[in-house]
Design a protein that fits this description.
Blueprint (H helix, E strand, L loop, with lengths): L5 H15 L3 E2 L4 E2 L6 E6 L4 E6 L9 H12 L7 E6 L12 H7 L3
Parallel strand pairs: 4-5
Antiparallel strand pairs: 1-2, 3-4
Length: about 110
């Protein structure tokens, strides 16, 4: 098992974040990062990575598809050996969590 410095972990998390920007919500056409769906990224020295995220609505039918896309995207980050996607509902998602980019793309002010 590798031991990473705090600086190395931050760089790995940045690469994880970049990879997650490639996960597009098929209904909205915007990535899950800019939509504000990802609440936390936890990376352990063992390579285990936990993504805490929410969905735009509790009954969103895309949970499995997005989880699968997250697993695929994180295969591009060599330090990640295991991915656990945790759906959380608190705090509840709202348009306030979206980036400026997402608001412009979706025509929301």
């Amino acid at each position: 098992m590798a031991t990473y410095t705090t600086e190395e972990v931050e760089k790995i998390k940045d690469r994880i974040l970049s990879a997650l920007e490639g996960v597009i919500d098929p209904e909205l056409g915007v990535d899950i990062i800019n939509l504000g769906l990802v609440y936390a990224i936890e990376f352990e020295d063992s390579g285990r990575t936990e993504i805490q995220m929410t969905l735009t609505t509790m009954g969103c039918p895309l949970a499995d598809l997005l989880t699968e896309q997250i697993h695929d995207a994180l295969k591009e980050v060599p330090e990640v050996s295991e991915v656990d996607v945790k759906l959380v509902w608190y705090p509840a998602w709202s348009v306030d969590k979206m980036s400026r980019y997402a608001r412009i793309a979706l025509g929301i002010r």
